[in-house]
Amino acid sequence: MLKPLPVKLRTLLASGALAFGVALGGCSQSSETSSREKPLVVASYSVLCDLTTEIAQDTIDMTCLIEPGQDPHTYKATTLARQSLEQAQLVLYGGYDFEPEIIKLVQATNTPVPKIAVHDQAVPSPIMAEAHHHDDHEQEKDDHKDDHKDHHDHDHDHEEEKTGSAQSDEELEPDPHIWHNVQHAIKMVEVIRSQLAAVNPDDQELYAKNAKQLTTNLEQLDAWVKAQVATIPKGQRQLITTHDALGYYINAYGFSDSDALQGLSAEEAPTAARVKELVQKIKKSKVPTIFAEVTTNDKVIGTVAREAKVKLSEQKLLVDGLGEKGSDTGTYIGMITSNTCAIVDGLGGNCSSFDGKAAK
């Protein structure tokens, strides 16, 4: 038969258990407090989210509003998105009307916290390109017009053929897709770093260290892209896509010309006359491959490619953000390398893998 423990020993054990419980509770409370003390940073779309996470790591609570695969131009904010914007200590969005719904919400959110248009700050003198309408009715009204080629500050011999008439200033707007030039992404990194440091100065040294490493990686990526594009025969450095969003890429990496086959999104059904017009345009360019993006109408672009007797790249280009999280294109570097290899291989070049080092 077990004897009862002495009163003194029972008292000591009880006290120890109480102290242990208090300690556990204290740890839990401290952990929760630490979590609450992390600044809430809200970023509008995937490129900003990725760059911000690379710099901040786990020192912030990160909320990304636009999911991979969603179109920032037509994104509709949720109640949760509105609440996140109201609670944020720092809001990072693109700007240049890239995500119009979020920009409206940001402007309507009356909180005394930094709300930073990263594109505007990183590239204050953007490319001025033709205005695009992303709603169906506007697109239908524009279907009768000639397809638009981007201006992007290039003066080509066939400038008259781009639209059939000169563009007025009223028809131009800033091109928001600045990150397709890796040098611009480096500028975005600095904008993000400085804003994080202002909101959370206790971790500013970590932010500076991470931003420096990320900048080094991006400098290597930039050199790699240039080296890959250089393998494309000069006469074939023409980029025909289904969305006029790669102007910065074209300017930065030595393409002689570009064109966009407007009217081939998944929501649109171009007429037979329109398809014929696109086919003639492709034949005239003499490119070996054309490129679709993730929102392209696969059936229509396939028909256009077959009738034009050109190859349709199997790899779709990501032009408005990153791929799914955890995928090869789920990071900024992964997206740029994927797009570049698709373009280079499709146009007759030889794309080598990016290993994080300077291009060979």
UniProtKB/TrEMBL annotation:
Cellular component GO terms held in the UniProt record = cell envelope
The answer to whether the entry has keyword Signal is: yes
Is Metal-binding given among the entry's keywords? yes
**GO terms of biological process kind:** cell adhesion; metal ion transport
Tell me which UniProt keywords the record has, alphabetically. Answer: Metal-binding, Signal, Transport
Q: Which GO terms describe its molecular function?
A: metal ion binding
* InterPro entries membership: Bact_metal-bind_prot9 (IPR050492), Lipoprotein_PsaA-like (IPR006128), ZnuA-like (IPR006127)
Q: Where is this region: Disordered?
A: 131-172
- The positions making up the signal sequence are 1-19
* Compositionally biased spans, kind Basic and acidic residues: 131-163
Q: Where in the cell is it found?
A: Cell envelope
Entry-linked PANTHER family: HIGH-AFFINITY ZINC UPTAKE SYSTEM PROTEIN ZNUA-RELATED, METAL-BINDING PROTEIN HI_0362-RELATED
Give the family from UniProt.
Answer: Belongs to the bacterial solute-binding protein 9 family.
Supply the name of the protein.
Answer: Metal ABC transporter substrate-binding protein
Write down the species.
Moorena bouillonii PNG
